[in-house]
C-alpha cells in the first residue's frame, strides 16, 4: 500500500534550466561554453551538492578550470538563484496529495549555496512533511545511502513509497531499493503517471 510520495526538487517542483540561465547572463556562445564547462557541466557541481567543500573551495575549483573567465564564473555563482524558477503547480500538487492522506516528502541533490539564493522558489517547503537535502547528509543521488537515510529518518518502507525524479539514474537506484517510481518529464505526464500508480494501488487493496 502506497503511503508516501517523495519528490525530487530541481526540474520537478522547481525549474532549474542552467543553460538558459548562462545564456541570459552572457549572451556569448564562447563565454557560455567556458563558464558551463567550469561550473554546471563539471563534476564539481555534484560535489557542491554533497556539502563537504566550503563555498570558497567550490568557487576556487570552478575558477581553476577556466581562470580567464574568473569574473563571469563569480557572477554566475553569486546569482545562481536566478537559475531557479517557481512552479505554480507545486503547492496545489502537494496539498492535493496530503488531503488524500499521503505523506509527502522530498529527496533532493541541493547545495546550501543554491538553497540560500533560491528561497523565492522554495516556498512549497513548509507544505511538505519533511525531506532530505543532499548537503545536509553529505550523500548525493544516485548513491543508495541517501535513500536509506530518508527511509530511516521517517521510518518508511521503500515498497510503500513512490519516488518522483527527472533523472533516470536516480530512478533506477530507487527501484533497486524497492521504491515505486515516476520518471518526471513534465507536470502533466508525471501527475498522470502518479495517479495511475495510486489508483492501481488502491484497486489492489480492495
Distance from N terminus to C terminus (CA atoms, Å) equals: 11 Å
CATH architecture of the largest domain: 3-Layer(aba) Sandwich
- Rg to the nearest angstrom? 18 Å
Identify the CATH class of the largest domain: Alpha Beta
Q: Spell the H/E element sequence.
A: EEHHHHHEHEHEHHEHEH
Largest sheet: 5 strands, parallel
CATH topology of the largest domain: Rossmann fold
Query: Low-confidence spans: pLDDT under 50, at least 5 residues?
Result: none
What's the CATH H-level homologous superfamily of the largest domain?
HAD superfamily/HAD-like
Task: Give the overall shape, derived from the CA principal axes.
Answer: elongated
Q: Tally the helices: what do you get?
A: 11
Give the total of beta strands: 7
Q: Widest sheet: strand order?
A: 5-4-1-6-7
How much of the residues is beta strand, in percent?
Answer: 5-15%
Helix proportion range: 40-55%
Total number of domains: 2
Mean pLDDT: 96
Structural class: alpha/beta
InterPro entries: HAD-like_sf, HAD-SF_hydro_IA, HAD_sf, PGP-like_dom2
Pfam family, one: Hydrolase
Organism: Mogibacterium kristiansenii
Protein name: HAD family phosphatase
Spell out the blueprint of helices and strands.
Elements: E1 4-7, E2 14-16, H1 18-26, H2 29-38, H3 43-50, H4 55-65, H5 70-78, E3 84-86, H6 90-99, E4 103-108, H7 112-117, E5 131-133, H8 134-137, H9 144-153, E6 161-165, H10 168-176, E7 180-183, H11 187-205
Parallel strand pairs: 1-4, 1-6, 4-5, 6-7
Antiparallel strand pairs: 2-3
Helix pairs in contact: 1-2, 3-4, 4-5
